[in-house]
Amino acid sequence: MKKAIGIDIGGTKIAAAIITESGELLKRTEVKSDPSDREKMFAQVVEAVEQVLEKSSFSWAEIEGIGVGVPGKVDRENGIAVFQNNLPWEQFPVVARLQEQFGTEQITIDNDVYMAAFAEWKAAQGKSDETFVYVTISTGISCSIIHNGSFFRGAGFAGELGLIPVLSKGANKRLEKVAAGPAIQQFAAKELQVEHLATKDVFAGYTNGLPKYQPIINEVTDNLAQGIYAISCLLDPNKLVFGGSVIVNNPFLLELIKEKLKIYQIPEQQHILDQMSISTLKQNNGVVGAGLRVFESI
């Protein structure tokens, strides 16, 4: 049974896990990020890797390689984290530094959403002659496309669903600004005229049937449906899987999005409604995908 280490790097936490070539997660650990300094951030990545090996019964000799998911733009060929919104790693040579640290030549790096999408594609048993889309709704919004067994990357920045404009409250705004976690919190605080309101409280208010939260969730899900409709029109995918904390922790959103999406679609597009689902891997899709990419490159 071959094994690899998958690393999912974010602005608040770093997850590391030992993954088999079949996608089984054997051991996982998590440490806090330290985005105050590029070297401190790298030290936390090293800590995560060392912790997951220490907690397991495996040695480096049993590890085939490392897969790393990093936010933002990534130079995969040269192993460089090019640009991120929430990390101090502009032009940071991640692969070279990990090779130097651990003496492991086999290291694969990619954008974190692409890593998660690969795990979801495998979990959904995606076919090599279909179009598969993974959409993450969390602190930000993004998507990744696997078409005919390969990632569709465009010129290198494809999948930035959060940048697509949608009509919200009578004005065109980027989807991420009106439907991601922080945007929901800000929108609800403004509508309800309160200063302190957590995103989770907005969803709790809705599920508890409180009338004041109904129009807020209605607006958010309509915004999301507009974004998904753009995907439906441009790609006509065979399968679409949602991930990210906003929708994974609030699965009722899926049916609301479907209802609104159906209004926008013509009948020939509605096949996707039965092929939309929420991740079963949840918060582990990033590390699982990173680990799997050591064994299979697409």
TrEMBL record:
InterPro entries: ATPase_NBD (IPR043129), ROK (IPR000600). It comes from the Bacteria. It is an enzyme of class 2 (transferase). Keywords: Transferase. The keyword Transferase applies. It holds the Pfam family ROK. Its EC number is 2.7.1.2. GO terms for molecular function: glucokinase activity. Belongs to the ROK (NagC/XylR) family. This is Glucokinase. The lineage of its organism: Bacteria, Bacillati, Bacillota, Bacilli, Bacillales.
